[in-house]
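pinning this so it doesn't scroll away 📌
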Amino acid sequence: ISYITSRIAVMSFPAEGVESAIKNNIEDVRLFLDSKHPGRYAVYNLSPRSYRSSRFHNRVSECGWPARRTPNLQNLYSICKNMHSWLKQDPKNVCIVHCLDGRAASAVVVCSFLCFCRLFTTAEAAVYMF
């Protein structure tokens, strides 16, 4: 898990079974998030794969699109609005964003969100932060 800001983090897909030997183990991720942000995190799954949202206390938003494709602007705007709403609810709330590799789709969403919140005025500046 890499924190982009104190309230936005990215990671690769949380895996189970054999796959967890080379990726983030979903149970380890849950234990970490429950200890560091108890009851204060929402997970945004940008990958085309899914898992039981109960693993993260039913606070998972399935926002995925096909790998190596771009989201449509309506979907991207909806994700940004949802993240903004979650963070606005409580200053301790955090957003955990993941795609398959923790880079491609996660970068698109996080950089879009940073511009959506007007933390940056250009995409280049947001990408540099990422």
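📌 and the second one:
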Amino acid sequence: MSMPLVQLGVTQQPPTSKISDLLENTPPRDGQTARHWFEVLLDHISAFSSSDRNKLLGLPFVPMGPPSALKFLPPTKCYLNQGSKPKLYAKLSVFVNFGDRANDFLCACGLKNQVVIEDIAEVLIENPQQFFDFAGGYEDFLVELRKIAYQRRDISNPTLHKMSDKHALLGVRRQKAEDQDEWHYNHKFLTSQEVTIVNDSDDYQLFSDRLFITPQEEEVLEHTYININLW
């Protein structure tokens, strides 16, 4: 037996636009309320047209955080919490679980079951320095960058284009102080046009303190940077 919509403060058979307006203007403000709302709405999901569902994909109505720092996210920006997950993903992504029936409603609205490489690339593009810090620094960041490189074919062309155009690619520059013999390495996020691919090691020796290059001895990353540059 379906749960009546009157529980949400609307008439029993309202136009679906009324329901989307409710979620847009007065979304549930805590987990318990959200669970109840989503369970009620699951029983009426068949009434939503394709355009209605498309609107729900982008509506920020999933509550997150304590009342003092409450924010709302669209279902498409959330992932179903199914237990264990990589620590980095837990830091970079938002995982939710409101119970089976409520989750089913959110899945119909775009909730994702798992983090895929396209999502990781998008997070990197959005805030590369935060990604770097959450990964744990240079070496651990390279591990994640290699994953993106190896799975590049699973990343959409628009995302690859953004990766090329924005300051999302890690460049490395080595410099040596006048009174020191050791090289010091600087890291910076750059566009594909700002990262140099080293083809001539002799020339590089002359200008290495001025150029940001791809991480050295990382052939898969170099090939990926070259391909991304084509976008």
